[in-house]
Design brief:
heterodimer, A: 259 residues, alpha/beta, Elongation Factor Tu (Ef-tu), domain 3, Rossmann fold, 7-stranded mixed sheet, 15% helix, 34% strand, globular, B: 303 residues, 4-stranded antiparallel sheet
Chain lengths: 259, 303
């Protein structure tokens, strides 16, 4: 689908836990193919301190209802304002932006790893991988049980594994402490990962050790989201690349991570 | 429909709306959003003779009603521009200008010589005002003697329209403007970004990798307007005004201050359609005030 600026109507706003919200947005134009991992750049109501748009992964798409959903974690004034957007109001959204995850050409056994709000693009990814008959395994981590949102949704598309740092749900520890990494990693042909950078680096290290294909979805502060401000760069083996247009999904072999 | 035609030296503009270098990529990035030919023209991003990687991340900080950037002229170099980008720009019917920068006078000359060979490039904007590079850039734009040196050197080899982009980070903008005019500038554009800084109170560290960066957005508009007005009193060559223009009203204010054309910069990041909305809004303003031509508005501030 060609990127465009659309005024989207907020049709649902669901609070998932203390600081996570799910916004469902209805598009005026018919949605076409959006790839898992692509994102939307959303304008917040103009206030003195929130000048720029805020980028969000596209969490789910419903082509019948012509809606997309985004997962918002309140971290500052911009996300707080957006998460409190009333139903029936409109948001200016630029989408779809960036490149999605590389999908297998034929059936494969894949592992999705997400942590915190970084789980956002993985639900759409799981849905598409499941539709394409892959064996989908989804490992989600959080600090505590309350951080693990929408497990029932992910369970529709694959086998769920969980970790919590306090041990309140699933295995205790970080995602990379999960037993799946110590005993079964070779069985996966692809790992897709999104979450806090230290988590992604830890997952990338495990993947690299076993030479498993691994893609990560990066997040950087950006002004435009479509490759003209050149603010969101990340270091790659080919020099500075924009997270918005060259990513946000990168193969770990492209990145200059010390792993 | 009012007459929006205006002229910057030898460049005829079908409307007075251009885009600011570094906020519009190579124009191609906006093809999905709208027909770029609707613009009076666009100015592609800062080009240097050698490729530049730019500054490390983080390069951007959001500020009250604006943003700081410290991109540092990341670009593929003039040869890459000529071989890989220019062929893609030939399809545009509107004016395309190239923003030219360098670390030494020789680099400015070498870069301008390459652009001079490109038929479809209507002119250059000489960037003597980038605050985000260690050498050259703004250093050229902050003293009358260095302004005269670089402008006259490039003037000798560049045959088409040369706009000189001024830095606001000076004590007396009028003096700098006169130095550029005297050295052969065909037009002046102002303002580039204002040197600023952001600090993260929680980490107690500077936000930008370069510590300081260039401030843009509506926060700088009053300063830009004041400087355009001052320069308009000081020189005879046409002025291209920019600095925090978000809508048609902002643009009108710059015409009144003395700008013959304007550039839209940071607004492109927030609304990729800002430029076309501004063109429509200027037309509506002129109709509403029964002014037949944009030229009847330029410098017509009621005192």
């Amino acid at each position: 689908m060609r990127k465009s600026v659309q005024n989207m109507k907020v049709v649902a706003n669901l609070r998932l836990n203390d600081d996570h919200y799910l916004l469902q947005l209805n598009a005026p134009d018919q949605l076409e193919n959006i790839y898992p991992g692509q994102f939307a750049n959303i304008q917040v109501d103009q206030s003195q301190s929130v000048f720029l748009r805020r980028p969000f992964s596209i969490h789910t798409i419903d082509y019948q209802k012509n809606t997309i959903s985004i997962l918002i974690k309140e971290i500052g004034e911009g996300t707080r304002t957006l998460s409190h957007t009333p139903i029936d109001s409109y948001l200016s959204v630029i989408f779809p932006l960036g490149n999605g995850f590389t999908l297998p050409a034929s059936k494969e056994n894949v592992l999705l790893v997400g942590g915190g709000c970084g789980v956002a693009p993985l639900l759409h990814l799981a849905q598409v991988l499941n539709r394409d008959l892959n064996d989908v395994n989804i490992l989600l981590g959080g600090r505590s049980e309350i951080d693990l949102v929408e497990l029932d949704q992910y369970a529709k598309y694959g086998k769920i594994y969980t970790t919590t740092e306090d041990g309140s749900y699933g295995e205790k520890g970080f995602v990379t402490d999960h037993s799946i990494f110590s005993i079964e990693l070779d069985q996966f042909t692809r790992i897709y990962c999104c979450g806090p950078e230290p988590m992604m680096k830890a997952v990338a290290t495990k993947a690299k050790t076993k030479s498993v294909f691994c893609e990560v979805s990066l997040e950087n502060t950006m002004a435009c989201g479509f490759g003209v401000c050149l603010c969101c760069v990340t270091e790659t083996i080919q020099g500075h690349k924009c997270v918005c247009t060259d990513g946000p999904v990168f193969n770990i072999n492209q990145l200059k991570w010390q792993i | 429909m009012a007459d929006l035609n205006t002229i910057i030296h030898n460049i005829k503009l079908k409307n007075p709306v251009l885009t600011a270098s570094g906020t519009f990529g190579y124009g191609i990035e906006f093809d999905d959003f709208f027909d770029v030919n609707l613009l009076g023209g666009f100015i592609v991003k800062g080009t240097t003779i050698h490729p530049r990687q730019g500054n490390p991340y983080p390069r951007m900080a959001e500020t009250y009603s604006g943003m700081l950037n410290a991109v540092g002229l990341q670009n593929g170099g003039a040869h890459y521009f000529a071989s890989d980008i220019y062929p893609k720009l030939i399809k545009y019917e509107t004016n395309v200008l190239v923003n030219v920068s360098g670390s030494t006078v020789e680099e400015y000359i070498a870069c301008a010589e390459i652009i001079n060979e490109l038929d479809r490039i209507a002119g250059i904007e000489l960037n003597i005002s980038c605050p985000n590079v260690k050498e050259g850039g703004m250093a050229f734009g902050t003293s009358c003697s260095s302004v005269a040196a670089v402008v006259s050197a490039v003037r000798k080899i560049y045959k088409k329209t040369m706009i000189v982009k001024l830095s606001p980070n000076v004590t007396d903008i009028a003096e700098i403007a006169r130095a550029a005019e005297g050295a052969g500038a065909d037009s002046l554009s102002l303002i580039n970004t204002l040197l600023g800084m952001a600090i993260n109170a929680e980490t107690r560290k500077p936000v930008l990798s370069t510590i300081t960066g260039g401030l843009s957005g509506p926060a700088v508009k009053p300063i830009a307007l004041r400087m355009v007005w001052q320069v308009a009193q000081a020189v005879k060559i046409p002025i291209v005004g920019l600095g925090g223009i978000m809508n048609a009203t902002d643009a009108i204010e710059f015409f009144l201050a003395g700008a013959s054309a304007i550039q839209v910069g940071t607004a492109n990041f927030i609304d990729p359609l800002a430029t076309v909305k501004i063109i429509d809004g200027i037309d509506q303003y002129l109709n509403r005030h029964k002014i037949s031509s944009i030229n009847d508005l330029i410098g017509c501030l009621h005192m």
